[in-house]
Amino acid sequence: MISKYQLIWQLMHGQRLRYGAAVAALVLASCFLYLVPLVSSVVLDVIISDNGSGTSPFILRTVESIGGRDFVRANLWIAVALIFGLTTFAGLFTYLRGRWAAEATERIIRGLRDRLYDQLQHLPCSYYDGAETGDLIQRCTSDVETVRQFLLNQVVEIGRAALMLLVPLPLMYAIDPRMTGVSLILIPPIVGFSVVFFQKVRHRFEEVDKAEGRLTSTLQENLTGIRVVRAFARQEYEIRKFGARNGNHRDLDYRLYRLLATFWSTSDFLCMAQIALVVFTGGVWLASGSLSVGSFFFFLSVVNMFIWPVRMMGRILTELGKATVAIGRIQEILGHERESTPIVANTTITPADQRGEIVFDRVTFSHRDGTCALQDVSFRVAPGSTLALLGPSGSGKSTVVNLLLRLYDHAEGSIQIDGHNIANLDRKAVRRRISVVMQEPFLYSKSVRANLMLGHPTATHEEIATASASACVHDTIMEFEGGYETIVGERGITLSGGQRQRVALARALLKEPLILALDDALSAVDSETESLILAALKSRRGRHTTIVIAHRLSTLMHADEILVFDRGRIIQRGTHNSLKEEAGLYSRIWKMQTENI
């Protein structure tokens, strides 16, 4: 994995020229700014000093080159115009520096956001199993903003601090080497203190950033499950939980700003001490006649101009510390391996091969924590037939669908669709042929129509209505005030659980998939509606291969084959009629569900 600084350099690709132009504009602005006190010092020495006592030879030569003392005294308006012009040009190049830096930064950050979002779309599901949503949001918002602020303000400021110190050095040395040494005597301690401070603040900021991520996760989790919180009257508990995380964030923030306060006060003292040293030494030499008023004014002005940018190196290093932490957290996402690409290139399923046959051959799969979800599972689903999966929670039923979708990759064995090992197929190509309806379907905060067209963007209204009728939800939708244009709210919250499941089923049917997987997709509908949906699905038999996962035997009793799972293994297989007569889990469930109470 590349280093954080290499990543920053990569992010600047395509915008480095703009940053270079911004630095060049900064150089010109600095040069113009430093010429202003030089003009003032020349004027002061010409007006105040007649005999040239203490005046720098450099200033004397400058005066002679423009016409002598008498010419300068007679044309002071030239100095005024020159100061005005120099200040104007300095302001112009300062504006250009800010504009070019802003343009470069915003382009970089837009690219970074796009890159992050693209990466999140292609990370394996196992990554999200161990990640907190709030923390990911924190990295994509707050951490990106930290990087933006650094690139916008501090990258160019690094150049500004260095240039404001280096640009005037030749001029200072030409005017008075002694005062140049005095003006720089405390610069090394200021810079050294900033570097030491940088090491401390980076660690503190990392703690604050992680605490803010935990705080965001708590808020996001609470808002997502607000109805559960209300249902169990857990408001006070959640308030205390949030308060504890908020208090921890406050304490860490307080420690960070206490450290910052120490730095600013100490650096302020050193900077003021440097200025005081220039005033005191310059005053002594001014009184002795070895330094002119103009030269004293020049050094006092120049020190005030470069000491604060140098002092700002501490702030730059602080922001660099924050940016490196933020970049590190972003890099954890960008550097994570994406979902794997096909092992065998250019392996595709041609339209002629598309039948819908599914074969699991000795498939074994374990979760990240080592828990075995499937062990040595083998079965075949004939094209157009229906396979039903039954078993207790955690027995591996949903894992079969997840592996078929390649949301996870199995460790051993093979899974084939129409004779092709799915490990050799592009994931998108596999998923385009499969429609899945989950027990807790996800609906976007859009219209019913937009949710239905998710898998078939070009579907006509007649196709939508037909699929909705098969899912027994068309009449329900037409009863809504807006019909198919009704907004369903975030996660489909304005619909009942059964309505959400039926809309999700209609969405899956509208796609006209090669394989249809129903993962306990009818658990929230009533028995009458379930019968109507099953009848509609039965009428579509042969149009796609179907996998049905359910706990109610009424949902799966008409399947061509039923597999009974327990602890990741298939313990029974057969038809409804054969299994209900066979001693085992299926017959026990059948008796419990059909027993008259």
Written account of the structure:
The structure is a single chain. Helices cover 63% and strands 10% of the residues. The protein has 597 residues and is α/β, with parallel strands linked by helices. It folds into 3 domains: 4-334, ABC transporter transmembrane region fold (Up-down Bundle), CATH 1.20.1560.10; 343-433 and 513-597, Rossmann fold (3-Layer(aba) Sandwich); 442-512, Rossmann fold (3-Layer(aba) Sandwich), CATH 3.40.50.300. The strands form 2 sheets. A 6-stranded mixed β-sheet has the order 6-7-8-3-9-10, with helices on both faces. Strands 2-1-4-5 form a 4-stranded antiparallel β-sheet, covered by helices on one side. A hairpin with a 2-residue loop joins β4 and β5 (420-421). α7 runs antiparallel to α10 (187-224) and α7 (133-166) packs antiparallel against α14. The two termini are 64 Å apart.
Which helices and strands appear, and what pairs or packs with what?
Elements: H1 4-11, H2 16-48, H3 57-65, H4 69-74, H5 76-122, H6 125-129, H7 133-166, H8 169-175, H9 177-184, H10 187-224, H11 226-231, H12 235-288, H13 293-311, H14 313-334, E1 358-366, E2 372-381, E3 386-390, H15 397-404, E4 412-417, E5 420-421, H16 427-432, E6 434-437, H17 448-452, H18 461-470, H19 474-479, H20 497-510, E7 515-519, H21 527-539, E8 545-549, H22 553-556, E9 561-566, E10 569-574, H23 576-581, H24 585-594
Parallel strand pairs: 3-8, 3-9, 6-7, 7-8
Antiparallel strand pairs: 1-2, 1-4, 4-5, 9-10
